[in-house]
Design a protein that fits this description.
alpha+beta; Helix Hairpins; five-stranded antiparallel beta sheet; five-stranded mixed beta sheet; 16 helices; 56% helix; rod-shaped
Length: 490
């Protein structure tokens, strides 16, 4: 039954109208009265046998009460008609019709009134049932719509078989099964091996009538991909069966966000520790200098003055580089640093970096070998910073070496140019290789060597901003090779 049929059942028909019923009753009375007057002479008082017709009409339209009242009134109406036609009163009615006749008319009213009331009761019950059936179907349709359109996976399980008997579209998409395939499985089939025991315990709880909210666990797609899910399960009655209504939500992204947030929080703690630690040394040096400026020796000891000025310059330079590296890291991570890509000759860029670092290179006694020859599309300024940082690292971690050497080279690949910076220094411990590109992380062999732990993190951010990759190969005591890629010239 649809909504149109229900509305039609509710709509009042014309014969249910009160005015129509009154009109019919009046017409019936007039017809009976006219017939009584016209045919009394020809068929005598037998015409009163038709007195039951108006009573039947009244009873049919208005029920038992109206039938009884109209039967009694018809007795009076017949008295009036006898008075008009036969010039007689009660005695005429009694003699012609008799008390049994009057009782018969009343009984006719009772019978037809009862049938009318019975008919109306059944009609109301039928209408009520129709409305209830429509409401039930509408409610079921609304439930199905919500069930199918829900963004999280919803399912219903027959507790006696453990199989799915209802699954929404989100479940198909989440697990990668067709509807027919999924309906032959159970929740245990969607769990990895290590989760099956936990799933069984959940199933047992629901079977005992308990509700389980927001339990976490891994689930497996048809293609074998495992994801982290948030699930709930509730016992319900489904078409006379004990069933389980459950939900599944893929929260892998949320878990990853949480992991990233925890890493960021750890970075903040590391940042606080490193900055406070690294800034303390230069600030201590500056405080020492200012104390020296107040001493008499400042005016007389030229060598001491020069030493203090050098210490102050180095301290300020270190503070400046630390702040500058922090700013660059922040801009690159936020994407606010504009990478200005231009066609660049890599050989000239590296030669310029080596020339700029000539004093530092000569002082350390390191030999720099250049084997670079490629055309690239990069931001010249920030890529120069990459080479400066890698060469400085190689110099700082050269250790005691009779023949210190740094080699800078390039290899042209299909779509990128691969660069390397190779040294024969102290190398990196194997346990440190996985963390050297993280902020504020330094190797275990860095004791006595200045650094904030930001340099290689900044280098990695610059290379990734160019769409490239960076990695390292090293063995402690045998040197290190840093590799990275950048786009070819476009």
């Amino acid at each position: 039954m649809d909504i149109v049929e229900t509305e039609q059942a509710r709509a009042p028909r014309i014969w249910h109208s009160v005015w129509f019923q009154i009109l019919v009753a009046i017409v019936a009375l007039f017809l009976y009265g006219g017939s009584f007057v016209l045919f009394f002479e020809s068929i005598d008082a037998s015409i009163t046998a038709f007195a039951g017709l108006p009573v039947m009409i009244f009873a049919w339209f208005w029920g038992i009460k109206a039938g009884v009242v109209s039967g009694c009134l018809m007795f009076l109406f017949n008295t009036l008609l006898f008075k008009i036609v036969a010039n007689t009163g009660w005695d005429g009615v009694i003699s012609h019709e008799g008390i049994p006749g009057a009782v018969s008319v009343v009984l006719i009213g009772l019978a037809f009134g009862f049938m009318r009331d019975l008919r109306e009761r059944y009609r109301r019950e039928l209408l009520s049932r129709s409305e209830a059936e429509y409401a039930l179907r509408a409610s079921e349709q609304n439930f199905r719509n919500m069930f199918e359109r829900a963004s999280e996976g919803l399912y219903i399980i027959d507790m006696s078989t453990g199989r799915f008997i209802g699954v929404n579209q989100a479940m198909f998409e989440m697990f990668g099964y067709a509807q027919k395939e999924l309906m032959t499985l159970s929740p245990h089939d969607l769990c990895p091996k290590e989760e099956k025991e936990k799933q069984k315990k959940i199933f047992d709880k629901v079977n005992k009538g308990e509700t389980v909210h927001n339990f976490k666990g891994y689930r497996v797609r048809k293609d074998g991909y495992t994801f982290y899910a948030l699930c709930s399960a509730h016992p319900i009655q489904w078409y006379g069966k004990t069933a389980l209504f459950g939900s599944v939500r893929d929260i892998s992204v949320l878990v990853e966000y949480q992991r990233q947030l925890e890493l960021k929080n750890k970075e903040i703690l590391d940042f606080t520790h490193v900055v406070t630690h690294d800034m303390r040394n230069p600030l201590t040096s500056l405080m020492t200098i200012f104390e020296f400026l107040q001493m008499e020796e400042f005016r007389t000891n030229q060598a001491k003055r020069e030493e203090m000025f050098r210490m102050g310059r180095d301290s300020l330079q270190y503070l400046y580089e630390l702040v500058e590296n922090l700013l660059q890291c922040t801009r690159l991570e936020e994407g606010t640093h504009q990478i200005n890509l231009v066609a660049t000759n890599a050989k000239e860029l590296v030669a310029g970096v080596v020339d700029k670092m000539k004093v530092q290179i000569d002082k350390s006694g390191v030999t720099v070998v250049q084997k670079v020859n490629a055309e690239i599309t990069v931001d010249r300024k920030v890529l120069s910073h990459v080479f400066v940082n890698l060469v400085e690292n190689a110099i700082n971690y050269m250790g005691i070496n009779n023949n210190p050497c740094i080699e800078i080279g390039s290899t042209i690949r299909e779509e990128v140019v691969e660069f390397y910076v190779k040294d024969n220094g102290t190398g990196i411990a194997e346990d440190d290789l996985g963390k050297i590109f993280k902020k504020f992380k330094r190797g275990s062999n860095t004791v006595g060597i200045k650094g904030s732990g930001l340099g290689l993190s900044l280098v990695k951010a610059i290379i990734e901003a160019h769409g490239g990759e960076i990695w390292v190969q090293s063995k402690e005591g045998e040197g290190t090779i840093f590799f990275f890629t950048v786009p070819k010239e476009v």
